[in-house]
Amino acid sequence: MRKPIIAGNWKMNNTKAEAETLIKELIPLVKDAEAEVVVCVPYTVIETAARLTKGTNIKVGAENVAWADKGAFTGEVSAAMLKEVGAQYVIIGHSERRQYFGETDETVNKRTVQALKNGFAPIVCVGETLTEREGGVTEAVCKRQVEGAFAGIGVEDAQKTVVAYEPVWAIGTGKTATGEQAQETIAYIRSVLAGLYGAAAENIRIQYGGSMNPSNVKELMEKKDIDGGLIGGASLKAADFSKVVNYR
Ligand code: PGA
User: Fold this and answer.
1) What is the tens place of the pLDDT at every residue in 219-230?
2) What is the number of the ligand 1 atom nearest to the C-alpha of 209?
3) Nearest-angstrom CA–CA distance, 79 and 155
4) 174: pLDDT strictly greater than 90
5) Which residue in 66, 72, 135, 210 has a CA-CA distance of 20 to 30 Å to 237?
């Protein structure tokens, strides 16, 4: 019932020329994918990515969005600007933004509201640090982040939103959560969503992210509540990303 969604998160990688090479390699490799395929890319290459993927099954996303329509917000990029260059998805609240750029549950919520208002599919990231996992507060952290992100968001919009569960200790470290660990926390996140939206929580897609790659994708995707992946490092090579996309 929930269509799997595999999204690349390029982070701060790829110039225009590099983006062009990667997208051109990727197009034929993922054209028969059963999953929804998205590449979330730096602002400067959104237009390039959107132009090259036009008419293909690859969709393009941004890595953040401003919560305001326009105005005095130096360094921010608005939803209208992102739409104009061809982005349809947007990552919000990635742990790197929470860790290095002061993103909070409140700003994540404001950005998510703004993304939905402008017709984007937000990919909202949540997940605990290693200290939090070891301190036994994984569920409390995920609950706070999910409830924070979805505050005031209605059931229709909630179902357009994708959640990415990304344990911070698994991001870029080569340490993946086991299928069981990921399933357990993602099922818990779905129960938090059920607390907010009842049965509609069954329609909300929840991805796993954190060192997902061609060798562990199958184990993770077999789990009942895992509906896709948010892929960092392995999305930077067409061969690897396409293997994740074509995990079956
Ligand atoms: P990773 O990054 O796949 O390199 O661990 C995932 C993410 O941060 O979205």
Assistant:
1) 999 999 999 999
2) 6
3) 21
4) no
5) 66
